[in-house]
Amino acid sequence: MHALASILALASTASAIQGFNYGSTFTTGAAKQQSDFENEFTTAQNLKGTSGWTSARLYTMVQGGTASDPISAIPAAIKTKTSLLLGLWASGGDTSFANEILALKAAIKQYGDDFVKIVDGISVGSEDLYRNSPQGIEAGSNVGTGPDTIVRYIKETKDAISGTGLEGIPIGHVDTWTAWYNGSNKAVIDACDWVGMDAYPYFQDTMANDISKSKSLFQEALDKTQQAAGGKKVWITETGHPVSGKTVGQSVASADNAEKFWKDVVCPLLSSNTNLWYYTLQDAAPDTPSPSFGIVGNKLTTTPLFDLSCDKANTGSSSSSSASPSSTGKGGSSSTASGSDASTTSAIGNSGGSPGGVPSGQISSEQSATVTPTAISPISTGTGSSGSGSGSNGTFTVPPASGSTIPASGAQGLQSGAFAAAFGAIMAAIYAL
Ligand SMILES: *[C@@H]1O[C@H](CO)[C@@H](O)[C@H](O)[C@H]1NC(C)=O
Ligand SMILES: *[C@@H]1O[C@H](CO)[C@@H](O)[C@H](O)[C@H]1NC(C)=O
Question: How many whole angstroms separate alpha carbon 102 and alpha carbon 100?
């Protein structure tokens, strides 16, 4: 009892990282400037009913409208005491990736220790493998990248930070759980220090996915990802439920359901000390996309569209178990426990694309992939298309890890939407070349 009590105490002291995903552009394609990021970060920290939303996950290192200048989210984060999960866009081809590296190095040089000490980790790529899969392509997502390229880029990133203040910072990759569960992508897992999972039950339209199923769908996605990750830490890099938009399968987009998702999935994750970047604080500035996942609407305000408090939530939900100790600080870790459900054989359906993967984005990605900056269509928001993850390739036989499960519903629909924003920046960068 004593031991248990002290472990719990320890777990609660070590706070996990909590944050939102931040694109580099507005829905018009206009680049966010430092003051814009400052306003967003400050709003996140002061959201009514919450505390601790102090991390920002980025999709690109490059400031919109420039070729390879460091993104202005960095000085904004330093000023507002926000930590950063950096992102390097990896689906734009080698030239585009080289610019991401240039911006990363320039940031280290320009901001030094003020910057280095607020970095939670680095993600090389975002949903590139999903977009490269049949499901992603069918869902109309954009150009992606294969596992070999991601592995190569991870190595290049490691080399780039070697001997700098960022040396040793945990490097990972973000993708849908279906991509992680695909055995053909295992080399990426091997190259990662941590695995970032995107999960959107809303998009999982090949299975029963009404809002009451969100928790179990999310949990299943997490279990599969943890199985595939084989003991590496799994960070929840994107999840959320739309406040508006069309019904996908049985899942209705509404503020009420977003609140239910928050209570059923997000609150338990928070109490289990898992590193989490919710999608998202705001995606409707100035235009509201469909679906829209923002917890605030067109106007940046600390008053959310639905109640974000967790005290009333049933955090001790059925599937939740003990908190998995997560580390904090630089490179904070998250839970690595694999779900108790790991042996489940339930069918894997659609994994859903990220809200950002839209048709317009596809045009841009293809352009960026070939480095032919023609008409840049600012991809501001994405629509989440659903990708399906086939379980056929889940050849992982990792034994169910013991440990805590994160109470949530399995999201098989994942895909980040933020990717669109990153695109804008990348395209702008390429354009500027
Ligand atoms: C599995 O991953 C490989 C490599 O990324 C990809 O080519 C293949 O299409 C994926 N299979 C499925 C079913 O997604
Ligand atoms: C599953 O992955 C294996 C290799 O890991 C590959 O040989 C096989 O073709 C894949 N199957 C599908 C359906 O992608």
Answer: 5
320 in Cβ contact with 65 (< 8 Å): no
User: Is the separation of the CB atoms in 264 and 215 below 8 Å?
Assistant: yes
Say what the pLDDT of residue 255 is.
98
Overall size of the chain counted in residues: 433
Q: Is residue 318 part of a domain?
A: yes
What is the spatial distance between Cα 69 and Cα 303, in angstroms, rounded to a whole number?
33
To the nearest whole number, what is the mean pLDDT of the chain? Answer: 77
Instruction: Let me know if residue 193 belongs to a domain.
Output: yes
Whether residue 411 has its Cβ less than 6 Å from ligand 1: no
Instruction: Tell me the residue range of the domain where 146 lies.
Output: 16-413
DSSP result, 304-370: -SS----TTS-TT-TT--SPPP---STT-----PPPGGGG--PPP-B----TT--HHHHHHHHHHHH
Q: Tokens 């002061």, residue?
A: 46
Find out whether the beta carbon of 334 lies less than 6 Å from any atom of ligand 1.
Answer: no
Tell me, yes or no, whether 103 lies in a domain.
yes
- Distance, CA 419 to ligand 1 centroid (Å)? 20
Q: How far is residue 419's CA from residue 137's CA, in Å, rounded to a whole number?
A: 15
**pLDDT at residue 373 in the model:** 20
The domain that holds 291 is classified in CATH as 3.20.20.80
Give me the active site residues, please.
127, 238
Give tens-digit pLDDT for 90-138: 999 999 999 999 999 999 999 999 999 999 999 999 999 999 998 888 8
pTM recorded for the entire structure: 0.75
Q: Which atom of ligand 2 is nearest to the CA of 183?
A: 5
Q: Total domain count for the chain? A: 1
Alpha-carbon distance of 410 to 35, in angstroms, equals: 37
Task: Find, among 420, 358, 417, the residue nearest to 198 by Cα.
Answer: 417
The alpha helices in 192-266, defined as continuous H runs, are 214-229, 255-261
Position 421 in a domain: no
Q: Tokens at residue 394, please?
A: 């889940």
342 CA from centroid of ligand 1 (Å) = 21
Q: Give me the helices (H) in 142-254, please.
A: 147-161, 177-181, 186-191, 214-229
In this structure, the residue with its CA closest to atom 3 of ligand 2 is: 184
Q: Where are the beta strands (DSSP E) in 369-416?
A: none
Distance from the CA of 294 to the center of ligand 1, in angstroms?
31
Among protein residues, the one with the nearest Cα to ligand 1's atom 12 is: 133
**Measuring CA to CA, which residue among 9, 23, 104, 5 is closest to residue 59?**
23
Q: What is the DSSP letter of 375?
A: S
Residue 85 confidence (pLDDT) above 80: yes
CB distance 147 to ligand 1 below 6 Å: yes
